[in-house]
Amino acid sequence: MLLIDNKVVEHVLNMSECIAAQEAAFASLLTGGAIGRPRIDMYVPCDQDNGYYRYGSVEGTSDGILAVRLKSDILVWPKAEGKAGSEQKFCIRPGTYCGLVFLFNTGNGEPLALLNDGHLQHMRVGGAAGIGTRLLSRESSRELCIIGSGGMARTFFEAITAVRDIKRVRVYSRTRANCLRFAKEMSEHSGIEVVPMDSAREAVQGADIVATCTDSMTPVIEAAWLEPGMHVVALAPRELNQEIVDRFDVKIQQGREDLPMPETERFRKGISGSPGAYVAGSEEEQMRLPKAKHQRIQTENWPIYTDVISGKAPGRVSDDQITFYYTVGNWGVQFSSVGGLVYRKAREQGLGMELPLEWFIQDIRN
Fold first, then answer.
1. How many CA atoms lie within 13 A of 156 on its CB side?
2. Which of 50, 135, 205, 209 is deepest in the core (most CB within 10 A)?
3. How confident is the model at residue 273 (pLDDT cuts 50, 70, 90)?
């Protein structure tokens, strides 16, 4: 049983392999070689009167490994100038987080590894942006726009430049200092010109690929900014609205994440970034939870990734089409495929901390 921390994950995992592992696992969904359970969250009142505790879990299996990913977060939603701002999260105190991935051998049930999910999470989501970009963007794409400058923006950058020959990147972030830092660091890291922009509109104008990677609770681009031939990929549903989605000629979702369960007083859909969640707390306490500022985008009839690679649905068929890849879905399979890759490489390289297997195995039937 291996304990694998973020440093080991970062050491053994590169973006090209991360993308390839996910693509192979997604293809296995067509044959039953992979399967996942959609994410379910649980919201519970916390110690802070402006926040809520959220526990989330998702599971998936591929290539002989099952992954269970769980998170323990305190969420707060600070407002910006009296309007909906961003979602902030932490565990215990701001700046510390709790996310874990458990791996099991589906051949004999053996616990294999326990991983920090931080770097793995950023890589699997960035990898998804790369998968969608390779699937739908024009091969001639050279100009990339990134809205956002955090950790996810970095892996989006890495993944998109891994699958397309990007010559210039324009970046916008609402915090100017972060935007400048991102531009400098990513330019030095990649050798690609990265230009900080003064507005989101300027960043989007003329881009071949537009990537939104923010924690904003409201849309970060406008429908009128979209141009023929663009490819768009988003981190979270809150970054878009239905007006923007209506401009897309081709809309592909990564996988089905909606839970086939009706909403009730205690089970709700669409709270913050949660596909479905059980909600504790009094009526007064639940007032802390954010209210949707716009209609959640409707994806029920969209084709998914496997529809396109199997020929069931078309992808881009014209250079003039505006395409969109929605990175929601297949999350559990992402963790099993990328987590399994990390585990195997760590084993091969003798990395990680060995934990006694007897800590996790018992002789009492449960």
1. 28
2. 209
3. confident
Q: What local confidence, expressed as pLDDT, does residue 292 receive?
A: 59
Question: What is the C-alpha to C-alpha distance for residues 25 and 336, in angstroms, rounded to an integer?
Answer: 9
Helix (H, G, I), strand (E, B) or coil at 234: strand
Residues 220-253 have pLDDT tens digits of 999 999 999 999 999 888 889 999 999 999 999 9
Q: Which two tokens stand for residue 122?
A: 């950023």
- Burial class from Cβ neighbours inside 10 Å (0-12, 13-18, 19+) for residue 119 reads buried
Is the model's pLDDT at 275 over the cut of 90? no
Task: Compute the distance between CA of residue 59 and CA of residue 335 in angstroms, rounded to an integer.
Answer: 8
Residues β-bridged to residue 308: none
* pLDDT per residue as tens digits for the range 72-81: 999 998 876 5
Q: Give the C-alpha separation, 119 to 27, whole Å.
A: 24
* Contact between 90 and 83 (Cβ < 8 Å): no
C-alpha 235/C-alpha 233 separation (Å) is 7
pLDDT of residue 234: 93
pLDDT in tens, 123-174: 999 999 999 999 999 999 999 999 999 999 999 999 999 999 999 999 999 9
Of the candidates 156, 153, 91, the one whose C-alpha atom is nearest the C-alpha of residue 128 is: 156
Residue-averaged pLDDT of the chain: 94
Angle at 321 between CA 237 and CA 154, to 5 degrees: 45
Q: If DSSP codes are grouped into helix, strand and coil, which group holds residue 237?
A: helix
Q: Which amino acid is at 19?
A: I
**Amino acid at position 328, single letter:** V
Our measurement of the distance from residue 241's CA atom to the centroid of its chain's CA atoms, rounded to an integer in Å, reads 18
Using the CB atoms, write b or e for 20-48: b if 16+ within 10 Å. Answer: bbbbebbbbbeeeebbbebbbbebebbee
